[in-house]
Records
---
Amino acid sequence: MSIPQPTDLRERHRLGLPIVNGWLSMPSGFGAELAARAGYDSLTIDMQHGMVDFCDVLPMLQGTSIVGTPTLVRVPSAFDHVCVEVMMKVLDAGAHGVIAPQMDSPAIARQIVDACRYPPLGQRSSGATRASFALGSTQTPYAKSANTSVLAFGMIESQAALDDLDAILDTPGLDGIYIGPNDLSLSLGEPAASEPTSQRVVDAIERIRLSAQSRGLIAGIFCSNGEACAMRLKQGFNMVTPAHDVAALMQGHSQRLNAARSVSAPISSSKGY
Ligand code: 3PY
Ligand code: MG
């Protein structure tokens, strides 16, 4: 008999339970619901590299809500500009948290946290249109619980972030980091790779994980498949992503096609010509 496990990500982290986080790059509410039904511990809707805009995010959050899977949104910000307005909007739509790419400085980390917390902890604006009933309850109205429930993640994926790692990770209110191994590899002068083999990148990844976890932060990393996720969990990561839905779909199509075409004999005509 399986033991019920908490769906709240902070609670899972507190209990030392792994978080397997699906990645949604396709703009589909139904697709998001199907991924949730597959049983991921959490999902992330990708507005940075996914084919997803805010108008797609809302039905996707509705799709995952049906199942009750905590859902984060990776916002499309880059470099020194953080999409504060997009973060606040997806949180109002019912996201459980955000992942901001390229958290390259303490100032960016502060902006991420500010967008996720109502005053006095941050600068989030009041008006949680959907989140108030999708994530609130009669016992605990959303605005009351949001400052402790919303998750603020930033991605560590550059040499600049490595240079300022301690100051970035010391940002009060930050819940976790996500490593982007592809961008990190590029930034360190190596070819982009989800499973880097260059020793410099391997060492950087381990340094980031240990530095984050020594502060109690959730340490997450994007991976290329389920086996790589298992390896990262064994290494000690708290949160892993077995690539995105596009890869899963392409793989499924290829398997079916290859199976269907595995018989090479010509089809004989029943009419004999
Ligand atoms: C990276 O590998 O750089 C990522 O951002 C993964 O999504
Ligand atoms: Mg990246």
---
Amino acid sequence: MMERKFAIAIDGPAASGKSTAAKGVSRILDFLYIDTGAMYRAFTLFMLEKGKDPKSEEDALALLPDFRMKEDKDGHVYLDGRDVTDRIRERDVSSLVSYACAYKAVREKLVDIQREMAEGESVVMDGRDIGTVVLPDADLKIFQIASVEARAKRRYLENRQKGIAGTLEEIEKEIEKRDYIDSHRENSPLTKAKDAIVLDTSDMTIQEEIDTIVSLFKKKVGDLWKDTEQSL
Ligand code: DC
């Protein structure tokens, strides 16, 4: 009998702590972690490197067939074989990513890649449209939210650790702007699935977030998970 595979979808606005929580959950459950925002970031970087304007849909569509990216098990992202994991977090990419990811053809191609990556695996996937579009049958759907202040502070500390410049105020403005673009454009990808559980993480530590998601998952799948654990 084929081993039962599981999927956890974690959606939410920019810098709500999704990727850190998703990574932690994937380690505990030994699932594959897939960071979908990283793919839209990689496409934005690809456009910039080709000297194109991410605000131009025409340019985006022209480049799309040449876009080759890979994401490994630990969330490292490669563009044409080069490791761009840190580069795609820099501010030029962050401030332009909302444009390139709004084009239908770009979304379709990346959603295809995301589904392919998830096939035959137990996964934790984070993004905006995972519970609604990419994995509508996920076993657990989390819609993670946090106040702008809490999100800006997290991203600021994360950036400082990575040596990425920017003040707390600048990051707060950037997050507000990105939230606005993400939620006001036509067909915004950020929508809560009907069956998603809302998790407000403003006052939670990362460990609390991870523990909460793992226990929600175990509760949700119940005996199915216990059977799998015993057969490990
Ligand atoms: O999660 P993040 O900040 O790395 O995401 C970067 C951008 O990609 C963000 O502006 C929204 C977009 N995105 C998307 O449209 N759909 C996803 N599934 C994931 C991210």
---
Amino acid sequence: MPASLHERLAVRRADITTLHVDAIVNAANPSLLGGGGVDGAIHAAAGPELLAHCRTLGGCPTGEARITPGFALPARFVIHTVGPVWHGGHDDEDTMLGRCYRSSLALADAHGLRRVAIPAISTGVYGFPVERAARIAVTTVADELAARPALAHVLLVTFGDEATRVTEAALALRLAEA
Ligand code: APR
């Protein structure tokens, strides 16, 4: 009997760089050469080898994902994805945000990774509305978990009060449908 969505998807308020999971997802920019926010925190915690490795990757288009070792992080791998910049919602931002979650979980699955933690992609510097992003995250990850039975557990990692409240509400709504 496959584990239920309740057992495979959860919200966790945490600093993602502290999580002992197979992979943490980074909200990067197309250069993959680091930045602020969660990107800055991940590079700071992983150490300089991460940047050195990222330099060899040649960047990453919005909506796609690239995988690297975790280096000094407790996570074994980092999956770097590039979210859309919010321009008001008429520039295919919703679709591109969904692609980030799908690309990241496809890459994790392809590498046989089972426990993945994902931050609230695009909701910081990139300005995506938090509630809208949370709904997209929960819906997309739930669909990917249904399609990818080898993925054991996904944590939607939040970093503030509002993001946590909003993401927990979005997950509760989806679990009520399950
Ligand atoms: N752990 C978990 N979540 C975090 C952490 C952390 N240590 N630090 C920040 N966050 C959260 C933010 O609160 C926000 O909810 O990650 C979410 C994404 O925000 P950003 O990091 O600003 O990412 P994003 O909005 O996708 O913008 C990407 O910012 O840092 C640059 O190089 C990055 O240019 C890229 C852009």
---
Amino acid sequence: MCGIVGYIGRKERAQDVILDGLRRLEYRGYDSAGIAINHGDELRVVRTLGKLLNLESALRDVPLVGAVGIGHTRWATHGRPSERNAHPHRVGTVALIHNGIVENYLSLAKELQSAGCELTSDTDTEVIAHLIYEARKSGAGLIEAVRETVSRIEGSYAIAVIDERESDRIVVAKNGGSPAIVAPGDGEAFLASDIPAILPYTRQMIPLEDGDIALLRAESIEIFDAAGTRIEREIRRIQWDPVRAEKGGYDRFMQKEIYEQPRAISDTIGARALEEQGEIDLDGIELDPKWVEELRGIHLIAMGTARHACLIGADIFERAARIPATVDFSAEYRYRDPVVGDRHLLIPVSQSGETTDTVVAARAGRERGARTLAVCNTQDSTIARECDDVLYTHCGPEIGVASTKCFTGQIVALYLIALRLGRLRGTLDRGAVREAIVDLRRLPRLVERALQSWNAIEQVSRRYAHFSNFLFLGRGLGYPVAMEGALKLKEISYIHAEGYAAGEMKHGPIALIDEQMPVLLVATGSPTYEKVLANAAEARARGGIVIAIADEGNTEIRDYADDVLFVPPAPEPLSAVLATIPLQIFAYQIATLKGTDVDQPRNLAKSVTVE
Ligand code: AGP
């Protein structure tokens, strides 16, 4: 959950490249930041508590000149946010940055202390720096010292190391759920946790695999396995558009990404919906009709917002393809010893493709024989690379920590898979798929129409920004939408919000309802709409305030709600996409009114790469 960046080249611009890269990775964590630069045979390290701004101001008066360097922005795991726990960690001539967790650091720390080493931080990372320096003192070269050290680490790591006595190189090592990419430039080389950091400098990248150790020099990148054997890794072309990765004139990334949903949906549908033929093309993913016929079940695994998309996906799979579908928190899936095998399709859903819980759960499913088909937004990410197949959402980079366009993109991608499976199992005929495709093609314009309520929703959100608790209720597909709306509000405004099945209200939550607990109710057209109206009446009968999400043209809803956020009507499951839009905007506006850091909310990170 931290961001790592490194640069080596002919020009003495390491500090500029690193700070720019850290700015682009700050969504991965921002408890502290630091940089280490080799200038000739002098290694200098500067670290500051808090956001990158503090490091930038510390360097303004005393810039670090040099052509080799590494930088880090931290999300604290071991050791509270502080300057002494910030990376890079320096030991002797060595400086190191790390994203991940050293699970056996306590035993390594004890060993180092009994050898007379003095640990100066509370972090797990520091032990790695000490082990490398001890190996260097015994005569090992930098890459040998790293190889020796990582062979003793249990856990996940993406590390980058420089040494003032070998100042013409950077060594990078990767294992477990911590991503690392290296990239060749013209007489320079780059390393980073994620693509945005290197996007302005190169269109090529090499995603490192578990166990890889890379040696970066200005003119070359060499990659070795744990035994020290040179390996070849394919150089991939980065397809991201740099302009899109910027804010594009919006106040915040989250606002930009809410507005990008029509395009994200349209790009995710892309050329996959073959209206004429009444078929779906999943980018050529081969699904044998007999195997699909004999499928015993679909397991969807994800965390957070992606899991809410899975809940909608499971409903779609069962309706369209009549296949039993289950949804698990990835963090729970592996530990519940699931009944899964070669007659199951396991679908990990992940925007980043690096969520460790989902990476590990997908591996567990694969080990048990499941066919894995990832829904992912990040090209060549760990989940994308390790699954048998991947259907990418084409939402473009999602920088705001709160996921918005990728949620709706994931629903669309899951719908496409369900339509394909329905055709293969014969539960959907061409006509039904053709109809679904027509609805899908209309969806971007309907979302655009829903976004036009931005100002109307702002008026409503002003009336509710002072409340401290909210209840989000829905039935059927409205239930995962309610949970997603609650998650958006709580994660960016720090207001307590719970998503509940509306039918569950009378079994407990109704005790919470009074004039201090506004209820957001998903009341768009659905088979359970009448029951949702009854829930609205029950809430109001107890003094509750109801804000309803309802279809345009619904004239009765105002008798059941204090405020109404209207959306264009659409058939299920696409109505779930539309009902989500006002909830995203409501959360964004309340958080903005509260002055929280909407793109980088406290305690969070965009990609949770620790279990
Ligand atoms: C959603 O707004 C949160 N940022 C979080 O729940 C996120 O959806 C979750 O961590 C999963 O991330 P992923 O899609 O990258 O796997």
